[in-house]
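Sorry to interrupt, but I need a hand with the structure work. Can you supply me with one protein entry, sequence and fold together? No commentary is needed, just the two lines. Leave the record below and I will have a look.
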Amino acid sequence: MKIAFVSDQIYPRTSADAEQIVSSLSALGKTSEVTLISFCYSYSKKADKTDIESYFGKECTFELRFVSTLFRNIRSFEKVYFALKSVFLFGTKDFDVFYTRNIPVLIAFMLFTKKRLVFESYRPWPDRNFQSRLLFKKLSKNKRLLGIITHSDFAKQSFLDAGFGNEDLLVAHNAFDIDEYNPDTEEEIRKELQIPLNKLLVTYSGRISAKKGLDRFIRLAERNREVQFLLVGSEKRGSIEKAAEELENVMVLGWLKKDYVFSLLKASDILYIPPTLIARDIVGNTVLPLKTFIYKASGTAIFAPNSEDVSEVLSHKKTAYLVKPDDCEEEEKGFRELISDKQLRTLLGKNAKEEMLKNTWENRANEILNFIKRSISA
């Protein structure tokens, strides 16, 4: 099968969606002919396969094609330009399926080609606003849209409510390939960071922003001075970084290579997902974050919100310690219990890692390919 994945992002880039897309395409490319069509600026160097492999640590089993623009512009204009130019350059090519996560691309290919499409989304788009709901309600009746792949049951429900049938939707949780990593030992990592082995280490890895609810992380650090806290993924000196500077027990690291980050996660005692719905329901940019699966694979205990999306893959006191979102009192109480119970932390990490052994990108790719084939033959 020949699949064109059309993405209005520039690669490589430091974002969870870029990591997710490259990991997914790398797995899909092992059994199908896959081409990544991505955005670039004419005056910038275009990434080659070596760049992709070096940056993401994944085999680049897919081909690379580019849609360029000469000038930088407002990002929303760039997205529309990219979508239209992608249709012009590739809309008549002999791909079996065009696959995208971008709404402008989806609309452009539906309007100006007769090609079959697959849309993937971590967001519950029909619930976001009236326009999105209207769009997907109309698309639910178009047979050229073979189906929608969501990253969670939580997101799937919004498309069901918009008129899609259950057979039109596939929940494909994200994944992680544990066997690709050979992490440094806990002793080596802690020695580098100058953190004693007997000191509890609580780590958050990912985009660092108040929009992610990380003010809660800072609050926990203020109230638990005997614990070392670590933020990994800083790209600027924002409000969270400034707050961290005021606390001796908070360390901030920049964006690091994936294998080193995984070593940091394994060397930690607790991995933190902010127990808040701000990023999911108000900011709208996070639903069942990719870090959840990386955290699980590390074998380190996870502290996270008991929200509809996260609880699809984490169970309280089985694979994680879950607390009610946006409840500071319960968060503090739960955190104190977890830091005081080493046996519980060990059990949570062990169970979570075992669940991830079959949750590979290759297995996810096979689910997606089977879904596409069923949709084509239906």
